[in-house]
Write a structure and sequence with these properties.
Elements lengths: L1 E6 L2 H9 L1 H8 L4 E6 L12 E2 L9 E2 L1 H12 L7 E11 L2 H8 L3 E6 L4 E2 L1 H7 L2 E4 L9 H12 L41 E2 L2 E2 L9 H19 L1 H5 L6
Parallel strand pairs: 1-2, 1-6, 4-7, 5-6, 5-8
Antiparallel strand pairs: 3-4, 9-10
The protein binds adenine.
Length: 240
């Protein structure tokens, strides 16, 4: 899989892509991630990438030319067709299902904006998939791009040590989940020591009885979901 991230702040993203699961996935050759500075593509003599909005109003708007030229140049670096993703608060909400769909792509181009947003013609000309990581406004799309890359890459085969681990966690798509949402929050985990500050590991986890452990985990996952995210149980048509 190849991921190109177009941003005004590649230096903010690069260290994140070098660490932990992402860093190991890159080292193992499971994914290529490259960051590109949109400013390198501007034809403005002052290296501008944004301008005031027509019609007035606060803030600045990302201009067409630098973004569209950056996308064209970066797409040309590899002949694999790319799925274009624009990070913005108006986009489709990122869920585990959306991440799983993106993880099926051979190539992603993520476009992180800054300022008030993008000139609308960028949307019209690129027809990107638009993704929001939540109902709040960030000062730029970089953090959102990092979230998307993390959520996607860890789903690629081999990215996590244990082949089953992405299936066992909260928001994984699973066959025994409730309705269409197919998701529950994850059950509680424990590791050594068996007792810490008077708190003991539940006996069932020490029993060695795998069927009982599975049943306990399932019951705990349902209980937690009902307590913390009843919307996941009620709204069976929601995206997981
Ligand atoms: N850019 C600014 N806010 C954002 C959000 N919530 N999701 C994705 N991109 C953004």
């Amino acid at each position: 899989m190849r991921i190109d991230v177009l941003t005004l702040f590649p230096e903010a993203c690069e260290p994140f892509f070098d660490a932990s699961v992402l860093g190991r996935a890159r080292e193992a050759g499971l994914v290529t991630i490259e960051c590109h500075n949109i400013r390198d593509y501007t034809k403005d003599p002052h290296r501008k990438v944004d301008d005031r909005p027509f019609g007035g109003g606060p803030g600045m708007v990302m201009m067409c030319q630098p973004v569209l030229d950056a996308v064209a140049a970066v797409e040309g670096l590899d002949k694999t067709p790319a799925t274009r993703v624009l990070l913005c608060p108006q986009g489709e909400r990122l869920t585990q299902k959306v991440a799983a769909k993106l993880a099926e792509c051979d190539r992603l181009i993520l476009i992180a904006g800054h300022y008030e947003g993008f000139d609308e013609r960028i949307r019209l000309l690129l027809a990107p998939r638009e993704i929001s990581i939540g109902d709040y406004v960030l000062s730029g799309g970089e953090a959102a791009a990092m979230v998307v890359v993390d959520a996607v890459v860890r789903l690629r085969p081999g990215a996590l040590g244990h082949k089953d681990s992405p299936l066992e966690e909260s928001f994984s798509v699973r066959s025994d989940g409730p309705g269409d949402a197919d998701t529950w929050l994850e059950y509680p985990h424990y590791t050594r020591p068996r007792e810490y500050q008077g708190l003991s590991v539940p006996d069932v986890l020490l029993s060695g009885d795998h069927a009982r452990v599975r049943a306990w985990r399932l019951a705990e996952a349902k209980r937690r979901t009902a307590q913390r995210r009843p919307d996941l149980l009620r709204d069976e048509t929601s995206e997981g």
